Amino acid sequence: MECNDPHCAIHGSIKTRGAELVGRIVSDRAKKTVIVEREYTKYIYKYERSLRKRSRIPAHNPECIGAKIGDIVKIAETRKISKTKAFVVTGIVKKSG
User: Fold this and answer.
1) What's the confidence (pLDDT) of residue 55?
2) With a cut of 50, which residues of the chain have pLDDT below it?
3) Domain 16-94 has CATH 2.40.50.1000
4) What Cα–Cα distance (Å) separates residue 30 from each residue in 17, 26, 33, 60, 84?
């Protein structure tokens, strides 16, 4: 499959920098965009407890990768692609199902 996407981190001209995160895709309804949800813990010093939190990150999904809902993916930070997207999917860690 040939990839002509300029925003693809593998075949395109966009460079990655900064954070590399792993998360699960919870939505792929938008064209070429997925919502990646990652869970993490934050320690609260005052109460000496840990708090489980989650963040939802919009990421560009190139056609050559084609990740779907439920997949565990690796995303990398890049320059702003649109108003909300500053991450791009670089690979699938685990397929759903």
Assistant:
1) 96
2) none
3) yes
4) 24, 12, 5, 10, 13
Q: What is the pLDDT of residues 52-80, one digit of tens each?
A: 999 999 999 998 988 999 999 999 999 99
**The model's pTM:** 0.89
Burial 33-52, CB ≥16 within 10 A → b, else e: bbbbeeeeeeeeeeeeeeee
Q: Any idea where the domains of the chain sit in the sequence?
A: 16-94
How far, in whole angstroms, is CA 16 from its chain's centroid?
Answer: 12
In the chain, the amino acid numbered 88 is: V
